[in-house]
Design goal:
With 92 residues, this protein is an alpha+beta fold. The chain has a single domain, classed as 2-Layer Sandwich (TATA-Binding Protein). It contains 2 helices and 6 strands.
Amino acid sequence: MRYTVTRLCGGKALMASPRGDIDIDMESAYATLSNVGDIKNRDDMMLIMSWKGMEVTVYSQGKVMFHPLDDRDAAVSYADDILGMIIPPGIG
């Protein structure tokens, strides 16, 4: 999947935004991601969890924010990991 990576929070966070249209089922995402990370908060639009020593926010549009993180390549790799768990193959 291809992403646009944006630096946020004064450079302490990165957001990977898929270039295609994605609509994540947040209930299904919660069911899957609760097995790999510690879910802190969730609603219909986003899910916040601790994963690999970071706070990760997954948005229903497929955007994924990682804090703290300053490595753009890692952000893309981590976004692929997260979205690969919750998006059916061939979407995005």
